[in-house]
Amino acid sequence: MCRILIMDDSELRTLSDKARMYLNLLGMDAQLDITTTTEDACYHLRTAQRYDLLITCIPSSTVHSQMAESAFQWQPSIRRLFIAELNDYYPLLRDIDYVLAAPMSISGFYDVFSSIFQEHMPSSASIERSKRWYASHDALLDRILSVLQIIRKEYMNDISLNYLATKVYSSPCYLSTLFSKVMGVSPMAYVNDLRMDRAVELL
User: Fold this and answer.
1) Cβ–Cβ < 8 Å for 170, 187
2) Rounded to the nearest 10 degrees, what angle do helices 138-154 and 124-136 cross at?
3) What pLDDT sits at residue 176?
4) Residues of the chain by 3-state class (helix, strand, coil), percent to 5
5) What Å distances lie between residue 107 and 93, 146, 168, 175, 195, CA to CA?
6) Partners of 54 in the β-ladder
7) CA 136, CA 79: separation in Å to the nearest integer?
8) Cβ 22 vs Cβ 72: under 8 Å
9) Could you tell me if 81 and 55 are in contact, meaning their C-beta atoms sit under 8 angstroms apart?
10) What is the mean pLDDT of residues 86-110?
11) pTM for this one?
């Protein structure tokens, strides 16, 4: 199993949700740890077991960039995957192992992962099926991202499967099946997991 640390400081956690989605679709065996600040990422790198990969967006400020770079002193062998708007200038790009254009695509994600984690990748036939499925269901996966954003905004409210399905113009049964296929858990299990994570953060 590969261990991946994701530093995702966006309000809706789109990067971490997409990474989890892609890992499930590609059938990869990975443990994800998600942090929301550079300080948290440094703490994980300093105190946790070895990570194979760090995924984050290119930081927006020089100070933030320097803080992110300093995190790697704790695990020099970690690979670094940054998601960037490639038409912008980032002086640290020369020091990064892998850069993907935003928004992150499943093809780019697979190409990076196949070069890092060859032993963890499923058969090429199943990968090709997953990639073809994604390409032909782009709008459906965008719908799942919309559901994830609704859950993150309203997780403290009384959310039901019917409510989520209505919000994205889908039937509850279809949404549940699609969500479970893409995310590896049912929508309501995801809501409950998020509530537990938030409760732990507050403690």
Assistant:
1) no
2) 80
3) 93
4) 60, 15, 30
5) 21, 21, 26, 24, 32
6) 5, 80
7) 31
8) no
9) yes
10) 66
11) 0.72
